[in-house]
Amino acid sequence: MSNWVTLFEAIEASNKTSDKVKALLAFFEIAEEEDKLWLIAIFTGRKPKKPITATEMRQWSAEAAGVEQWLFEECYSVVGDVSETIALLLQTKSSNQPINYSLSQLMHELIRIGKLPVAEKKEVLQNLWLSLDKGSCFLFNKMMTGGFRIGVSQQLLVQALATHLKVTVPQIAHRIMGNWSPLTHQFQELLLNPNSNADASKPYPFYLAYPLEINPEELGDVTQWQIEYKWDGIRCQLIKRNNQVYLWSRGEELISDNFPDLIAAAMVLPNGTVLDGELMAWEHNAALPFALLQKRITRHKPSKKMIADCPCAILIYDLLECNGIDFRTQELYIRRSKLAELIGNELPLLHLSPTLHLKDWTDVAKARLESRNLRAEGLMLKSAQSPYQSGRKRGDWWKWKVDPYQIDAVLVYAQKGHGRRANFYTDYTFAVWHQQKLVTFTKAYSGLTDKEIEMVDQFVKKNTLEKFGPVRTVKPELVFEIGFEGIQESARHKSGVALRFPRILKWRTDKKVEDANTLDELKRLL
User: Fold this and answer.
1) Which H/E stretch holds residue 293?
2) pLDDT average, residue stretch 359-382
3) What string of DSSP letters covers 158-196?
4) Quick one: which of 17, 190, 280, 497 has the most CB atoms within 10 Å?
């Protein structure tokens, strides 16, 4: 476990990609194979289920530390992270000779704890806490809560693994996808000697586009680019192999059970077919609000009524596998032609994403501005000669999104962040005016520079009005420009609206609180 702690500290200490890859390589060079496999699982979202509730965790750790619950809560309000609070409180009670568990041992213990009766869970967990050093205790708690976030993308993990194993990046990216866990697979089996026939459900790594940051005319002849809408849904892969259909989200979740209607529609596809597309709430050849799709994505085995009330379809972008043959190295215009033959206009719920045949870049720019009327986020520009690669690559695929919606709002609540930001107030809640009162409508965590974060942090500390656990009510003085991709009605929020992808665009130091927008102005964007 000390190797795991060393890795975490090295990653948190630097923003440089090269430093993070170096730290990962150092871990892979000395770790046991089972520990390597658990590290990959953790970084790719394959953690065990949370074994206890948040309330149990706080109560039991306070008991183990020998402090009253109110004192634990006061400490938590200062630290801002429950996992770190527990580690700090328990370090005075823990053994002078802590046990150096391996990462895999702790993960197996975490799984075992989840199967115990409540009373036994408590005793085992408290003893375990007291046997760990501070760093190991902190990381174990993070993994147990499911709130583990670390500044390493899957792309960096793949890069380090490829270097360590002397295998290409695309090969590693493909091998770590699919339905596996450290409980069912060995490191060698998964990464060095994979059986291509072992998992018929295995998807391919997704190819991702870069934001367009140049004048599109610099891309050259418009006829050499496939232009289509950037739909606002959930990127997915639809797979049919061995007479079984599987549906994967880009987040590597197998969501077949959530969409039995789409699985049934895909049964007519030939075996050995893998399609890349966008899962959408869709009816009468038009996109529906994203909120409907959210209802479906959270519902396993939906009822017939749910399926009827929230109709969905997949807009197919690309053909990755045809008749069991990997098509990704074929040029896009070839894949598209074959895809049109396969999908046509006859398959219910599976639609070919339309391409736009435009005469020049001026017309492309007009189509981009009009895309929001179709509930699209903008346009995708794909080179007709491009293969289907893995990960995010520059040059062949670009996303040209419409400008975000913007609203000026007031900072009213703040909470400390995680990892490198654990000592700063970086998680903010914003409000707009309604009937001469400020009404909260969204949270945002990104968009400020490190210098601005420090300045806001100082403001929060000097202008706190109330404390609610780790949350601070802040004197309403700071105005920020909030950007977001979409807006919908929501009964869950006091404002009556919910935003898609909110983030801070700018700190409006030139504006006063009374200059912030109103809720009515926000709702006009619905």
Assistant:
1) helix 290-297
2) 94
3) HHHHHHHHT--HHHHHHHT-SS--TTT--HIIIIIS--T
4) 280
Residue 337 and residue 213 share a domain: yes
Q: Please enumerate in sequence order all residues whose Cβ is within 8 A of that of 97, keeping only pairs 6 or more positions apart, or say none.
A: none
Among 142-156, 236-250, 326-340, 471-485, which stretch is predicted with the lowest mean pLDDT?
142-156
How does pLDDT run across 128-156, given as a tens digit for each residue? 999 998 889 988 888 888 766 676 788 88
| 3-class secondary structure, 229 | strand
pTM metric for this prediction: 0.81
Question: Of 401, 433, 454, which residue sits at a domain end?
Answer: 401
Kindly state whether residues 371 and 232 are assigned to the same domain.
yes
Give me the active site residues, please: 230
**Count: domains in the chain:** 3
Helix, coil or strand: residue 67: coil
Residue holding tokens 């000779």?
Answer: 97
Check: CB of residue 272 under 8 Å from CB of residue 283: no
Half-sphere exposure of 210 (CA within 13 A, CB side): 10
Question: Is residue 133 one of the residues assigned to a domain?
Answer: yes
Distance from C-alpha of 36 to C-alpha of 25, rounded to nearest angstrom: 11
Angstrom distance (rounded) from CA 458 to CA 480: 16
Q: Is there a domain that residue 170 lies in?
A: no
β-bridge pairing 207-208 and 479-484: unpaired
Q: Any residues with CB less than 8 A from the CB of 428 and at least 6 apart, and which?
A: 411, 413, 414, 415, 443, 444, 445, 456, 480, 504
Calpha distance 495→442 (Å, rounded): 9
Greater model confidence, 111 or 4: 111
